[in-house]
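Retro notes - structure team

What went well: the batch runner handled both jobs without manual restarts.
What didn't: labels got mixed up in the shared folder, which is why I'm recording both outputs here explicitly, each with its sequence directly above its tokens.

Job 1
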Amino acid sequence: MQRKIFAGHSCRSRCKDGSGRVFTVRIVAGFDIGASKTEAVILEQGSNRPEIRTVPSVGVPCMEAGKSLSFFEELLDSLPKIPSHAVINFVGRNKEGFRTALMRRGAMDVFASREAEAGVALFAALESDCKGVLMAGTGTVLAVSAGDSLRVIDGWGWKFGDAGSGYRTGRLALQEALRRMDLGLPVPLTLPWETPPLTEAEQWVLFRDTVVDWAYGLTRRQVAAFTAQVGELAEKGDAWALGILEQAAGDLQELIRIGAEIGGGMVLFMGGLSRCRPLVRLLQDRCRKAGLHMVLSSIRLSTAAVAMAARRAGWDTKLSDLMPAIERSEAHEWEFESPLKQRGSLQEKEKRTVKKRIQ
């Protein structure tokens, strides 16, 4: 049964909007809307125990201004109450769509920030006494506060950028795994097929066709999910996996170096990859040797957004006050779920398909 945290608002704050109307502030919300999932954190006034909700995103409406945001509308409809104040961090361009959805339901104050604008991420960085923030998940983007200006580095997407990202790391892992398969070597990754003998030429060609169809059908998030497998292997000391993570650590170190150079201060490292312990150890070692100062954080952008919303509502809420509750509920979770788990019974279905095609 889902826990209700909204009953009984013993602590209330009264504030005015521009027209002088008085509102009773009860809950605030922070939203992090990515290309594949939306995370909402709801906080009741006087509480440091936020509630987290996650639903799938629909990328195209996020990218194109004016498009209907049905997945977001459904999420708002599922909330027991509409927040008086909300902060939204999102990938895309449809800023007005998110604002309108909340304001139409009665929200008093909505601040929407594109991920490229880094409003929410820099709030989290400043709360940690950092000048810049490196967000590393499926993609990567570096945002740095340089005086009165904002500098954004990378974040160009999976085709042309995102150095050291989960997608780039997962793609490299899959690429090298397929090369090992071609050479008849053991494949470290868990993949949904059984490799036929190299001596069976006809079977091998059909098998490769099936693998190509499978690989090209993966989403970027599913490719990034192979980073989780690489991390698990690296924790056991696997040299192959450590080599792949070493390349990612090198790319991330370079972004941290750029951030420190532009901002003249420490850089906050956050996002899904910040929970990949072997990668973090490699990155910390590289930064230490290079004299770079990196602050590791398990802060989620949705948590930073709800803390920011609380501030806009006039509450005396600190981001650090919310972290213990978030860490307890999200302890040691990977940002990237295994693509085999995501697809469930498809793994056995794919094995049967491969077997049928090579017979």
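Job 2
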Amino acid sequence: MPPLTADQVFQLNTLLWSLTDVHPEGGIHPVLRDAGYFLRAIGQRVQVPRGQSQLTALQAVTESQDASPTRPDLWLGHSDAVPQVLVELKAQSFGPNSSNQRQASKLILSAADLASSLGSPAEVPGHVCYLTPADQAAAMAETLKSLAAQILHAGGDVAPTGALGLEHTEDGVLLGSPHPDDLPYPLRHVLSTPKLVLEAPDGDNSIQPLYYIPWIPGIEDSQDPILAADGLRELTARVLTHAMAALGTARPPQLLMVSGADLLDGATLGIFSYWREADADRFAEAAAKIVERALSATVTVRRQQWRLEIELPTAELQRTAIERLEDADPSDPAKSLATVVAEPPTLF
């Protein structure tokens, strides 16, 4: 089984905890938030600059004319005017000749100026960081430097690059960097030495805290199957729980309006509203479909993409509908978010 620090869901949630305002006695240390960083987006598109020199350099390095946007896993902002930090999560490092180099090269070139991605009239510098397990981070840093050098040699502009590493020790999970000077200020100061983000729990408790996002579509091939199944079941259960809460606040007779996006935002503790991935709408639609299928035999439900209309003419039907959601099995593969997300998209 791969180490937990190689699991991209764990990596994502660890960084989210490092950005969160939490109680200091909870065993979580928000080291990035304390340094002034905050989450701007997950999976937000980064446009490739349309200047001829940039496009020519990109084509020379990647041997491709593909100028479609990239979508880094996390986009971090800062309370002061410092470079925007774009973070990619990887289970392991890769070399400059890897199939991953095209995406990395495109991101390094595009992040040189993020103005077009943000609709800003002024230049907005970026800084590209890749997060891997700590023992892979030094090799990752060298690959990023090599790719940046190739782009510069081809006449393109580049964003600075750096590598981050997660290490699981007897004290807990540490966030660090093999070369802190490669990071933007104040990140280089914060991670001049590895910093504890998650304290080791007492007894047999898991090091994994309550995940913001317990499951991510599209990474099944790189995640341990047991962890993926557990995360999927947890997220499906949370969606059903938030649907029950929505039904519980209704006052029949009522036509209750429920949004799949709102259900997912509640299920991810407010993080889904930052989700900018291309499949975000399908993800929200899948949440709505799960609730629709659980309730359709009990009450009248109409769905338009991720929006639900649930007719609750009586308190008795309201109670029955809530019971149906309580009885729904989040571990049933046929009714999970993964199955529904994989279905062909529909208009209604």
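One thing worth noting from job 2: Strands lie at 37-42, 74-78, 84-89, 126-133, 161-169, 172-176, 195-199, 254-259, 301-304, 307-312.
We'll revisit the folder naming next retro.
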